[in-house]
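pinned: reference chain
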Amino acid sequence: NNYANVDLIVRIAKEQKVDAVWPGWGHASENPKLPATLKANGITFIGPPSGCMAALGDKIAANILAQTAKVPSIPWSGDGLTCQLTEEG
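pinned: its structure tokens
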């Protein structure tokens, strides 16, 4: 599936000498490897950083992140947990 193939997207972006990539919706646009690989190749990713994508792609991490931001949440076993988001997620 070319829409999810991060290596292919980055290879074509490099071949075409693009400055930035906007991935659209779904597939690779939800893969934290895409912005990280583009960044490593000097290409701007038009979207959230890979760390945010990694955190929000994990339901438990997303809940903890929401609690950290003081977003009202449904009670669960992880109530009260907070985090500090880094560049890596």
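why pinned: The mean pLDDT is 88. Residues 6-15 form the longest helix (10 residues).
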